[in-house]
Amino acid sequence: MSIVRSGARSGARSGARTGARAGARTGARTGAADPTVPRALDARVAAREGLSRARAKKLIERGKVFVDGTAVLDPGARPAEGAAIDVRLAAPTPARGAEARARLEPWRLLHVDGQVVVVDKPAGTSSVPYEPGERALAQLVEEELRRTRRTGPRRHLCVVHRLDKGTSGVMLFARSVPAQRALQQQFRLHRVGRVYYAVAHGDVPEGLIESRLVRDRGDGLRGSTRNPHLGRPSATEVTVVERLQGATLVACRPHTGRTHQIRIHLAEAGHPLVGERVYVRELVGTPIEAERALLHAAELSFAHPTEEGKRLSFRSPPPADFLETVKALGGTWAGDAVTSQPLVRAGPVRVADLPRGGGPPGSRAAARAARAHRR
Questions:
Q1: Pairing state of beta strands 168-174 and 295-303?
Q2: Residues 6 or more apart from 194 whose CB is under 8 A from it?
Q3: Within 10 A of 228 (CB to CB), how many other CB atoms are there?
């Protein structure tokens, strides 16, 4: 509620009947000496919607505020007082700058056939969109496939697995639902070969890190639990590639595929990734700065989902920012492949092997699907 003061207590500035104590809280809420100057857009949205100024500013910058039917992205804009202002939370967030011009370089398509697409994902690009209007890797790949007229059985790609936005390297998409199910089954049964390179703080020991991962370890972050009845089992094999100044270059082979598994396992061992912003609680000492968490998906191998006996293997050399950090920390590694092979269980999973619905062979979901099929 606005209060207007007048009279002696207003002093010489009471000509407009605002008074020194009223200030920006006058009935017109102008916030300026000249009442004819329109208020800033964020101030008007905050006042009308009952929001904080910071929240109103964020809504404007994300393209949720429209003036006379047009999205305005500048919180400091001053539309005329009679302009129609609408807040549309469902409006897509518009792309800006480099994101708006983003296009996948053709060389990043490592393999394309009628069932699978293998991509060298750049760091800083989401695997799939998390906000309306976000141009993620899946969309960029689809656009490049259409541009080069390599369309598949479906207009949109099928997601098989994900990489974090800051992670670079080899990523796999399916081009049909049966292929998607067969490839995801290989991931579930740990029949996909994967090697990641990472730069982690400190003197990282070699070995196998195992734990049960939960969504919330008690501080709002994913992490490990000692309760044998909670979480899901996870294991990461760590091999030292090169000792650096204050850090270690390691090759990680995840035996399971839990969310943020490598980042969590190294962090909880006291060796968070260089550039890590989330899992840093166990870090002792001054962090080494980097633009992103230095994790690179270097190798990926899997059985083709429809072609009998065909196994595909792909490798992505670490990008320049990764190698530059290694060099800055005194390293000499130039991205050469690690000679030891990742752990891969024998036997591919193909489309023909899958039950009609359900989960892995032997699971309750697979048994239900088999009974339904028999009926």
A1: parallel
A2: 253, 254, 297, 299, 300, 301, 342
A3: 8
pLDDT tens digits, one per residue of 146-194? 888 776 666 689 999 999 999 999 999 999 999 999 999 999 998 999 9
Residue 200: which of 269, 274, 253 has the closest Cα? 274
Query: Encoding tokens for residue 305?
Result: 């989902």
Q: How far apart are CA 122 and CA 90, in angstroms?
A: 29
Q: Quick one: residue 218, left, alpha or beta (phi over 0 = left, psi -120 to 50 = alpha)?
A: left
What string of DSSP letters covers 90-119? TSPPPP-HHHHH----GGGEEEE-SSEEEE
Query: Residues with catalytic annotation?
Result: 164
Q: Indicate whether this model's pTM tops 0.85.
A: no
Classify 19 as helix, strand or coil.
helix
Whether the Cβ atoms of residue 121 and residue 169 lie closer than 8 Å to each other: yes
Which residues lie below 8 Å from residue 166, measured CB to CB, with a gap of 6+? 123, 124, 275, 292, 293, 295
Number of H helices, E strands in the chain: 9, 14
